[in-house]
Amino acid sequence: MEIVIGAGVKEYLEKVATNRLVINMIPGETSTGCGCGKTRRFYTPDIRPAKMDEQFGKGFQKFQSDGLDIWISEKALSGSNDRTVTVSLKKTFFIERLECTGIELVFD
User: Fold this and answer.
1) Which domains are assigned to the chain?
2) Which listed residue, 10, 45, 61, 64, has the most CB atoms within 10 A of its CB?
């Protein structure tokens, strides 16, 4: 697994006093569009700074890149196509937030 850290990510993490990230998948449901009421479960990637005292169980794998500890869930690993994840900082007006690319939606 290759993890690429974009410009500004380390500075953003310094502001929130951590050097750890967690990438997890958030579940959601959608209708299949046929009108029969069936729903389909999907998972979208979510990235956030991890607290220094936060612990992760066996459903996560730990990676290190550019001096950062990155915890990635097994579900997120299954959604990475080419095994390369890019973590970047997106700025919109006055808001900064983390983004990750390289992990696709996962359907059950």
Assistant:
1) 2-29+40-107 (2.60.300.12)
2) 45
